[in-house]
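Thread: TraB/GumN family protein, structure

OP (GT): Posting the sequence first so everyone is looking at the same thing. Length is 284 residues per the record. Can we get the structure tokens written out before standup tomorrow? I want them in the notebook alongside the other entries.
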Amino acid sequence: MKKILTCLISLVAVLAQGQKLENALLWKISGNGLSKPSYLFGTMHITCNATLNKNVLKALDETGQLYLELDMDDPNMQAEMMGGMMMKDGKKMSTLASPEDFKAVDDLLTKNLGMSAKMLDSFMPSLVEMMLMPKMLDCPMQSIEEELIKVSKKQNEEIKGLETVADQMAALTAIPYEEQMKELVKTARDGMAASKAKYATLDKIYQSGNLEAIEAFMKAEENKMYADNSASLLDERNRKWIPVIEKAANEKPTFIGVGAAHLGGENGVIILLRKKGYKVEAVQ
């Protein structure tokens, strides 16, 4: 009997890995003992259009709590983020780049953020680049997470996080500072031209709901730093989220909103939940 069960588990894993996912950003989670379904939704953290469609609004109505990557309703979150933005061991951006490259970064930050690179010298370069994200859009920035929070607050529902600020900072710290700085310098040298083009492409893919295309984009050569560090940025975090999602969904119907890049792929949240025995189906 033990051998049979082992074979069945292996077969389920193989089938799950080989499944082609439909083009969808909203997925219903049911089965495996859940009394009512929960929902998994792929977000884009910054976008030109954060309007929630009727299916998402219906899913929010049918659930009793909201889980995002972080508890964005936590008043201490900003302070915790500020505390975790600094590089360890006294590293500074000015020592990770040549004087010419640091000057290019300084010019970029001064022009777009109104502050010099010296003011942010101890910050992780990837976080500095994230501060530039609103400038990479050709429109006023909108946030899907903020829209989800608005609806949940109107429904007097709790907003929670799948991980802590420290967890997110640890994932970024796993990327060598030298690699982070190289990417920031590249962004500065071309005046964010490549970054703007990438965001426009990613937004177009996102709107199509094609999770496989999102996965392929994140592995593309132009995203080499993120592709090389996908284990810490995506895979490890996805695995840690599964028990949290299971616990939440067993407590009450839950709406889970995470970056769409976390959904697809062999190590994505959809396949990981299916491997645990849940039925995860696209909501079209």
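GT: Both are above now. Quick notes for whoever picks this up: The chain has a mean pLDDT of 90. Residues 21-282 form one domain.
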